């Protein structure tokens, strides 16, 4: 969960940067609004979009490193006793996250209840809209509810403010505010969600100001904005004089941005798409150097060394029987030498081979068979340089049915193909 939240936060940051440095200066208010909303939606969806690339020769599903004659292997189990339970910091962080999110969710529900209670108790329906006259010092709207404070205002000023709030209602700006308020509960740790929410509210005001100023004198309207300036704001409300008063007045008198600059939004979307591909691609296509990979791994594993003695203090040792020798002649292949050992590896999720480092990564329900031994794990790394196999959350068992009682599960496993020994940590025997 934390990984996905982190990906979403990074995507929000990348999407917000073009707006902050370029687009917020333009007078494309409606386009800016939809850019910010789309950025938030895309940021939420990207971690859940996975595009699996196709590896040459079926490499993302099964890798036959070499075909060799079966040999024996010894599994040595090392139990690491835990004297004191270590603090699971990941669990602590998750707990803090949920506590803060719960508090913010309660506050949001309280705010919603306060708005709806005021509308139901003090409001009156006029032309299909709920109008609430109050002495709160601010004029605002929330969906079809309009809060009005008419003290000290002329009739024309009241009509201007009402038209302003009705424009917010007509354009559906309250839906945007509610959406960002929910995202603040989920991403309370991410500063960019606050920046994007504030920018979106400011864009709402720019959009409505442009509509109102087109129907009356911009100077008169700017004077009304200064007159009605307030400090107390609620995040869910579209407030008449919120959204950066100085910026709003400046935008009223700013020249219209050249329409050709709308092309910059397309460029930004292309750059964001290129960046996002790093999150949605689950593999890498390899078509040129696959034969070389097979040869490199072949030379690394063809000469198993003598069995080594361990210098570790053993609290328990479990020996899996030596696998039977297969004396049948090995099939002749151009890339396989005679009298060698069979190692097969595959994964149901994805597989990636780093040719330069000679390392094969297997993700999601990964399997490795070596002689009569099978290793199943969530993640497996085969290192051709030192001839080892590393596995996390692994299960080790003999493929012979008569030896199933000697199966092991381990938090981590390091299997040495040369010494034919596997060291497992925090392992338990499966009966």
Topology:
Layout: H1 2-21, H2 29-45, E1 62-66, E2 74-78, H3 89-122, E3 124-126, E4 129-133, E5 140-142, E6 145-148, H4 155-171, H5 173-186, H6 191-213, H7 218-227, E7 238-239, H8 245-252, H9 263-280, H10 290-301, E8 343-347, E9 350-354, E10 359-370, E11 373-383, E12 388-398, E13 407-416, E14 421-425, E15 428-430
Parallel strand pairs: 2-14, 4-6
Antiparallel strand pairs: 1-8, 3-4, 5-6, 5-7, 8-10, 9-10, 10-11, 11-12, 12-13, 13-14, 13-15
Helix pairs in contact: 1-2, 1-6, 1-9, 2-6, 3-5, 4-6, 5-6, 7-8
Explain this structure to me?
The chain has 431 residues and is α+β, with helices and mostly antiparallel strands. 40% of the residues lie in helices and 21% in strands. It has helices at residues 2-21, 29-45, 89-122, 155-171, 173-186, 191-213, 218-227, 245-252, 263-280, 290-301, and strands at residues 62-66, 74-78, 124-126, 129-133, 140-142, 145-148, 238-239, 343-347, 350-354, 359-370, 373-383, 388-398, 407-416, 421-425, 428-430. The strands form 2 sheets. Strands 1, 2, 8, 9, 10, 11, 12, 13, 14 and 15 form a 10-stranded mixed beta sheet that branches. Strands 3-4-6-5-7 form a 5-stranded mixed beta sheet, with helices on both faces. Strand 9 (350-354) and strand 10 form a beta hairpin. Helix 1 packs parallel to helix 6, helix 2 packs antiparallel against helix 6 and helix 5 runs antiparallel to helix 6. The longest helix has 34 residues, at 89-122. The protein is elongated. The two termini are 34 Å apart.
